Amino acid sequence: MNTRLQTDITQRLLNELEFREQGRYLRRGRCPECGKREMFVDSHAPWMLKCGRETNCGVTLHVKELFPDIFNSWSERFGKPDGNAKPGGTPVADAYLEHGRGFDLSRIRDWYTQEHYVDPESGAGTATVRFPLMNGFWERLIDKPERFGKKKARIKYGTDFKGWWWQPPGTHLVGQDEVWVVEGIFDAIALLHHGITAVAAISCNNYPTDAMKSLLEDCRDAGEDPPTIVWALDGDAAGRKYTTRQARKAAELGFTVRAAQIPQPKRKRDWNDLHQLDLLNSRDIEQYRYRGDLLLANSAYEKALLMYHHAERREYPFEFRNRMYWFKLDMERFDRAAQQIAGDAGALTDDERDQALRQSSTVVEIANCRPQALYFLANKITDESWYYFRVDFPHDGPSEKNTFSGGQLAASSEFKKRLLGIAPGAIWSGNSQQLDKLLREQLANIKTVETIDFIGYTKEHGAWIFGDVAVRGGKVHQLNAEDYFEMGRLSLKTLSQSPTLTINDDRREYRKDWAEMIWRAYGAQGVIAIAFWLGSLFAEQIRQHQKSYPFLEIIGEAGAGKSTLIEFLWKLCGRADYEGFDPSKASLPARARNFAQVANMPVVLIESDREQDGGAKQKQFDWDELKTLYNGRSVRARGQKNSGNDTYEPPFRGSVVISQNATVQAHEAVMQRIIHLHFTREGQSPDTRDLAEKLERMPVDHVSGFALTATTREKQIMEFFRERAPQHESRLASLPDLRVHRIAKNHGQMMALVECLGPNVMNLLPDTAVEQGCDALESMAVERQHAINQDHPVVQEFWDAYDYIQGLNGSVTLNHYRADASEIAINLKHFESLAAEHKLRVPPTQELKRYLKGSKSRRFVESNRAVRSIVFDNNRTVKCWIFEREK
Known about the structure:
Largest sheet: 8 strands, mixed
Distance between the termini: 84 Å
Shape: elongated
Structural class: alpha/beta
């Protein structure tokens, strides 16, 4: 074994699975399946990992299933000093076939060559292992194949292999007892290592008609009986479908046919995988043949008898052609039938035994569909759990997938109701005993899939979940056939159905010119909006490093293009025709759910600045609700449905965008948290309108790749951000006009994100646009400081009314202190009555009490101080609010 490869594998086992070295073996590793520290492996050849819990787990794993990244850079490990694999020699191909595929090279030495391939679209290059195929070749891409998307292998254009198979060089099929037909060349080579003659059809839907006819002719010419054809395609749905179809065609040609099937309990495996797992001994082969016989059974009764001969159970459920049946054997009837058939002969022959079985057993249909439990889902926070089922039909309709609760599986009647509710026309006609037996078999050691209840980034798992695609560790993962994501050892699924994202993972359709279009249409403020959206995709990481992420306020007059910009920015995350939600129209629980349903994505609040008619109850949204979201804390807590004191406070995982016509008016703590963008119609021209219309028409499929492009560059973006944000923060904090450090921090973060859009990281905008964005942010930071230095509009309105009344002629005054006192004393009831007398509209007293404590022009001192009034007769004492005089 290669020393460097062995060292890398051993180090990963020690660090990640906590193995301990004990002589020749590594022991007490943490099993990825059951979580117990019972795994062991030979340290001299650390290929096969075995869990020692034979009864409860006993899983066997190849090390490449745990650490696939070790086995995807063959040229770097075994190639030239420059890391490239040049065609001619075969050191990289040899290493791949020996260490990555487990083959004995002496058996296959001259069958392949090492070549090099450069993808014309991405420009990425890789070493390949090439096998001649008919008039062309088939080759496997072996260096980081994930760079090429779904293309892990390629066939030379024009290779005419339809109707033929790949046959190992030097292998003679005439005179063989059996010939196994598999899908891949590596599968055929793996079986050859175990004395099984195999050929590769290259694809499950390639029926090798010409090759089989040629084999029949060769057998006739040699005077030999044709071999039995064993169809051993992959064990997935496509493989099973074509196994039955190809076997029928081969039988029509005159071949004796059988099948072999690999069980697929938790992960898809092929014959090469079984070779590496040492699961191709004679006992294992018999098991695969048995599964193949079940697949080729011609009737439900024939399949039931095969299962009975295999395990000799008296009654059991089974599936045949997507219908569920129940087999039951009456032993008393069997004994009577056996005595009748055997007569004086005594022992039964196999055919006589089958005859007795047919007379004494029954097969009845218990469901006109096939319900199959796939995995178990649990939400630990809410203490809810489900079993995820797939329901298949005997007709050509698509499968249905949905959840069953424990209660719906506990009773036959509830199971029947739920089945009818999720799968049209699916009827369960079995009883409770039959259901219990079926579930006992399907739920034994069922796979558990971890869940989240939101869309976006889960920091516990380090992954983004975007609808049908996910990103983890810089790699894009597709939703599998069972509706969850398999990301290495992590199995993850979101329970959330809202929002719905449609992200196109075809990088060829992604266009980058949208960013420059926004810059040309909206200027520096458009650049800042893009930067905020980019930062939103990393809000959790930014808060983890800097404890906060600011809010973005987009305001301006009607027709300034705010909605067009926001709706387009949503397209970058795969969300079409959406702007945001109005918090004024939503209840507190509804707002809390909107804030909790996404992570590392924006939550956009729109149109919350509306005014109510006079006399109507004020329903304007209270911006103070947002303060806790700045640091990622919960917006609302709710009690758990149990008898304890448990509460559920989901953290805020996203970012906040505020879009309205008027500026946000709130307490200073909220104002400090805001990045303020003000859009106007000034500067609009036919060119900018044309750009805006192009942005409106641009399909989601052409720009949603931004989310994948950004998240797959997480490491690069976050390293750059962590370096630049503190530098900008320090520089802004040193400005003489900036006195609130939070403002410097927020705008410094945005400046670092604007720079991420430039050539150094994302390469979406030129340096000119980046410079404009950073300059604008510096000016905005100073303007934000000036904005918070001013009084709240409610306070300003109060002091305007005060100054008006105080300036009137006559003896009326509002200040209950002497004119030469250093403080002002105001009784709010007295103020309210005089304002009404002079027909002044002033905020209600309740509103005044809320905001006057933040007065800046005349600093608030205290409320409800007892003051001997100079305004009222007899200098009686009144309760007043006290302020310092204006300097």
